[in-house]
Design the sequence.
């Protein structure tokens, strides 16, 4: 089937690095909107590619004025925002290496990351983030300078208490840019850009591993360029003005693996990047509608939240009918793609539903979306099928931090439900004898910063050992079945993956997370956490108390969750089913170490912390 997103003349195929990317866009499309965001008052703001390059260039020249040399590391401790992107583009131009830190990172983890990569500078979003760096600065011998993005508040000046050391080693971003304008020439920066090579590092992203200290994935300019060249380019718009944007990309995740790729993709393909107003998941569905993106990369948790918002927008008695209609819609769309004849009555019903019922569902994505991608963790096939049936151009894809976030993808025109698609051009996928997925290509990272790993993540003979389990069908589609390290060995010798059970349970709007348990046991049990807003709404509609600690023990809620578990079990083979469950009084969190940066469950942490509750389910 023809790919609507075929490569066209806008694709900068001549670039081997990203060092000149921001400069190139400013020169060719100076007036095109590069980024959009809402300020603290809710007013939309924008910067053109020319304005973005000015900010990026001045940041780069400022970092050079601090004495940072090619290959030196500069960390960013902030939410994803324009200054984050401008720092990334500036670092790329100056031959520096960006290190990402989420704003939720605790001082101990900041010390580990900044010390491990020997960062010489760190950009802090505000004084609260700066305070975390200052708490561990004495143990970071390589760190020279902190740069404050937002001006400090009117809190008491404590610089005099430490002999003025804070003043000497901290500047504002505005001050850094001003120093760059006066102390480093544009020619010096251009010379730096010219010297960058494809094998030079662009970023170190510390993996959100579920065990042990985080390791830094060292990713090169060449890694990202290979993915960008393989990525489907936006369709040309011959009737548009010469300075048009090819569409809006809305990134819902924090500044980690997916966001890193999306930032450079926006510049590579001349999109406009729209930022979230914060990190609260409660507002996510509304923000997606408001942003009206053409390209929407999601993680499964975000997709589940949009799915919950769709169901919650309709009367409860209508949700079952909507789900059934989506199933029928999916059948019609799949039969059309196979060239089969559709009965006239079904065709007529579908045409009406697509204009009304399904259009209402698509409106939750803003009404302009051309491509929704889902990656980062296991995703419910029922939810994917629901949105596909409603005409949302949604596809599941696959990648890791170690592959610059991309390896395989479906496309809206050529997808196979239940798979993560085919390898991108230039990328190979194979399956090891034990079922492990292997990846080879220019997107595969050169290794972890400062260490060698013989287990998952190791690159042997050019093949990345991913730690994921899967299979490739006769048509080349990759199907993932679990993680090697997450297999649960039951007492009768059967090894099962917890993903199918957990995935099915998370399709319930009431459930935010599910964690299976059962190593050495005769069967699985599961710990559930609740979506607070959805479960309170559910309880209020039934006249039940809405306080979460009391609600988790209420017989009516437990009865509803029992039904949800029974429905999930009915779709699974015997050994993949759970016999009992327990409900946590709160959700899992990144701050407590129970979720990774990419919102995956840190299974060993959860198992250890709640072991007594799991074990009680076997009594």
Sequence:
């Amino acid at each position: 089937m023809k790919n609507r997103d075929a490569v066209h003349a806008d694709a900068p195929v001549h670039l081997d690095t990203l060092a000149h990317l921001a400069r190139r866009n400013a020169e060719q499309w100076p007036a095109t909107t590069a980024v959009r965001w809402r300020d603290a008052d809710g007013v939309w703001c924008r910067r053109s590619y020319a304005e973005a390059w000015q900010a990026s260039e001045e940041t780069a020249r400022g970092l050079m004025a601090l004495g940072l040399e090619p290959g030196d590391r500069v960390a960013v401790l902030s939410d994803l925002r324009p200054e984050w992107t401008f720092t990334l583009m500036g670092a790329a131009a100056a031959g520096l290496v960006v290190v990402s830190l989420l704003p939720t990172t605790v001082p101990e983890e900041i010390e580990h990351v900044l010390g491990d990569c020997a960062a010489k500078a760190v950009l802090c979003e505000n004084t609260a983030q700066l305070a975390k760096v200052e708490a561990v600065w004495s143990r970071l011998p390589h760190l020279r300078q902190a740069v404050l993005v937002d001006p400090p508040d009117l809190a008491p000046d404590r610089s005099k208490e430490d002999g003025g050391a804070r003043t000497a080693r901290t500047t504002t971003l505005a001050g850094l840019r001003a120093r760059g304008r006066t102390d480093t020439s544009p020619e010096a920066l251009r010379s730096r850009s010219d010297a960058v090579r494809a094998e030079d590092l662009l970023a170190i992203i510390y993996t959100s591993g579920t065990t042990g200290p985080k390791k830094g994935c060292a990713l090169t300019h060449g890694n990202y360029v290979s993915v960008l060249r393989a990525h489907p380019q936006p369709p040309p718009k011959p009737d548009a003005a010469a300075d048009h944007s090819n569409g809006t990309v809305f990134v819902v995740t924090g500044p980690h693996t997916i966001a890193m790729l999306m930032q450079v993709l926006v510049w590579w393909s001349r999109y406009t990047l729209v930022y979230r107003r914060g990190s609260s998941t409660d507002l996510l569905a509304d923000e997606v509608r408001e942003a009206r993106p053409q390209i929407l990369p999601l993680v499964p948790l975000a997709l589940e939240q949009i799915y919950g918002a769709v169901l919650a927008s309709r009367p409860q008695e209508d949700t079952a009918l909507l789900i059934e209609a989506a199933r029928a819609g999916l059948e019609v769309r799949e039969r059309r793609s196979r060239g089969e004849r559709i009965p006239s009555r079904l065709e007529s019903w579908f045409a009406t539903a697509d204009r009304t019922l399904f259009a209402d569902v698509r409106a939750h994505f803003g009404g302009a979306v051309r491509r929704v991608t889902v990656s980062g963790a296991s995703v419910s096939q029922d939810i994917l099928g629901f949105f596909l049936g409603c005409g949302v151009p949604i596809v599941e894809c696959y990648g890791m931090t170690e592959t610059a976030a991309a390896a395989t993808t479906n496309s809206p025109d050529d997808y196979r439900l239940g798979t993560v698609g085919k390898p991108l051009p230039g990328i190979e996928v194979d399956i090891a004898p034990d079922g492990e997925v292997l990846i080879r290509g220019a997107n595969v990272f050169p290794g972890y910063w400062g260490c060698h790993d013989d287990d998952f993540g190791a690159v042997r003979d050019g093949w990345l050992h991913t730690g994921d389990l899967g299979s490739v069908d006769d048509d080349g589609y990759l199907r993932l079945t679990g993680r090697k390290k997450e297999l649960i060995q039951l007492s009768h010798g059967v090894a099962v993956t917890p993903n199918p059970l957990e995935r099915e349970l998370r399709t319930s709007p009431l459930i935010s997370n599910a964690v299976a348990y059962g190593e050495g046991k005769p069967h699985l049990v599961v710990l559930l956490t609740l979506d607070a807003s959805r479960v309170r709404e559910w309880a209020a509609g039934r006249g039940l108390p809405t306080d979460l600690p009391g609600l988790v023990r209420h017989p009516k809620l437990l009865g509803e969750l029992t039904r949800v578990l029974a429905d999930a079990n009915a779709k699974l083979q015997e050994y993949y089913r759970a016999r009992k469950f327990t409900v946590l009084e709160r959700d899992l969190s990144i701050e407590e170490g129970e979720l990774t940066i990419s919102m995956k469950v840190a299974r060993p942490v959860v198992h250890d912390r709640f072991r007594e509750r799991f074990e009680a389910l076997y009594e």
